[in-house]
Amino acid sequence: MRGDAAAFPRPFPGKGLALRSVALRSGADLDGFRTAVRRLVAEVVPPDCVSWQESGVLGLFGNEGSGSEAPPLALPRGVGDLVRMVVPHSDPERYALLYALIWRILHGERRLLEISSDPLVHRLERMRKAIARDLHKMHAFLRFRRRESEDSFVAWFEPDHHILEAAAPFFVDRFRSLNWSILTPEGSAHWDGTALTYGPPGRREDVPPSDGFEAGWRDYYESTFNPARTNLRAMRSEMPKKYWHNLPETAAIPGLVRAAAARTNAMIEREPQMPVKRNPARAVAAMSGQEPKSLDDLNAIIRRSEPLVPGATQAVLGEGPAHASLAFVGEQPGDQEDRQGRPFVGPAGQLLARAMEEAGLDRGASYLTNAVKHFKFEARGKRRIHQKPTAGEVSHYRWWLERELDFVAPKLVVALGATAVLALTGKAMPITRARGPAEFGKPYAGFITVHPSYLLRLPDEAKDEAFAAFVADLRRVRELSASLTP
Ligand code: URA
Predict the structure, then answer these.
(1) Which of 332, 373, 394 to mutate to test the pocket of ligand 1 (most atoms within 8 A of CB)?
(2) What pLDDT, on a 0 to 100 scale, did the predictor assign at position 239?
(3) Cα 277 to ligand 1 centre (Å)
(4) How far is the CA of 364 from the centre of ligand 1 (A)?
(5) How far is the CA of 370 from the centre of ligand 1 (A)?
(6) Same domain, 110 and 25
(7) Which atom of ligand 1 is nearest to the CA of 343?
(8) Are residues 320 and 362 in the same domain?
(9) How far apart are CA 288 and CA 213, in angstroms?
(10) pLDDT in the model for residue 179
(11) Per-residue pLDDT at 15
């Protein structure tokens, strides 16, 4: 027994009570545990009369035989949550400890969970925290690599506990539109775009060692590493060394750390300088030998890119005829766009479609894209509230937007709102002043108008007038576009 062993002696079963053996599937068998607990409680079997086994055989109820399922238990709030979190723990005593807790709660200690000084509660709480940490590490440090032969991704991870099934839904939310597998020494999870399934263990060798794209991430990491802020202890506690082999960027860490002191001294002695302008998106593409040669090439790079701010499900690419003569640039995908992987499909997109129709513009003949390709949001309960991208984030994506418009080569580009203007001109300017025909310093003509989501936010009494002005802008866009030579 680990840890507080003395607090949990395993007494012999009381006289006349046979030892009951419960066999559960190895790993985290939450359903098996729940079923077993209901029956043990119904048959009044005390914890010290139960032996919990992990058999590797699904849902076998040991020497209890089969039988009808006992009804669910009425337990205080929080117990179910604790059970769900602790069942994946690798401690072989977890089931016994949880059953002991449930038994005590059902036998007069209803508020037991509130007594954090109780040794059993304390130990289970520590186990819950260990699982929360393990989940966090898996979500943060798992890296997919592209399989050469297919359009799918695979990752290797070695969690400390049996958390694969608890962790996998997070990756479904994040990478819903990709096909991927996660391999661990205990089992594997597979997502084919529609269903999440689990299979046998994998091997580290089944994951490609690295791909060219990773060189770009190393370069990006090196270029953002600040030698004056090297704090090895903090780095190790946030990103423990055992995960480093999964992370392309960590290959650079030992060298960077060795050079940190010398680089810091050199920084102090150097004359103050203006910051060098970097373009990480370009660095990533260039370093990995992925300078795009076509819109498809570029889209493949964007699709594989990690969001600058974690959270987005997928990159949302531009949409429309590849050589449309009219292009619209918005800000960033919203909640609906992020889920569906298509630009302008949510409320703002629907408003834009209505305004285009009233102005006589054919949405299907136009190219629609965004300055920033990933949804940035703040989670509030189940809601994901849009967060405006910072100027730095807009500049990160700017090179991609420029390449995209180079490939599409429209005659006219319409900037919808201030973020699009910033992305297209490099300058922040108020829409009220800039609204109308504009010059973006490119072969295509420009036009600036408001973003449709601005109209959605207006008070009801101001909406009609603002919508009419937006439609009037789009009519000018139609006339301008018609007047430009093909
Ligand atoms: N707002 C945008 O700027 N783009 C979208 O795709 C959706 C909403």
Answers:
(1) 332
(2) 62
(3) 27
(4) 16
(5) 7
(6) yes
(7) 6
(8) yes
(9) 5
(10) 85
(11) 53
Ligand 1 centroid to residue 66 C-alpha, Å: 56
Q: Same domain, yes or no, for 202 and 252?
A: no
Residues near ligand 1 with C-beta < 6 Å?
Answer: 330-334, 337, 343-344, 346, 348-349, 370, 453
CA dihedral 8, 14, 17, 22 (to 10 degrees): 10
One-letter amino acid for residue 98 of the chain: L
Residues near 21 by beta carbon (within 8 Å), at least 6 away in sequence: 50, 51, 53, 62, 63
What gap in Å lies between CA 40 and CA 33, rounded to an integer?
A: 10
For residue range 352-372, list pLDDT tens digits in order: 999 999 999 999 999 999 999
Residue 331: CB partners within 8 Å, gap ≥ 6?
370, 371, 372, 388, 389, 416, 417, 419, 420, 451, 453
**With a cut of 50, which residues of the chain have pLDDT below it?**
1-14, 57-67, 212-213, 216, 271-278, 286-288
Among 336, 337, 375, 387, say which to mutate for ligand 1: greatest number of ligand atoms within 8 Å of CB. 337
Residue 428: which domain range? 306-484
Shared-domain flag, residues 78 and 148: no
Please give the distance, rounded to the nearest whole angstrom, from the Cα atom of residue 144 to the centre of ligand 1: 27
Q: Report the distance separating Cα 89 and Cα 97, nearest Å.
A: 11
Packing angle, helices 460-483 and 347-359, rounded to 10: 60
Class of residue 94 by CB neighbours under 10 A (exposed 0-12, middle 13-18, buried 19+) = buried
CA 329 to ligand 1 centroid distance, Å: 9
Task: Choose one of 84, 104, 134: the last residue of a domain.
Answer: 134
Q: Which atom in ligand 1 lies closest to the alpha carbon of residue 348?
A: 8
Cβ atoms < 10 Å from Cβ of 420: 27
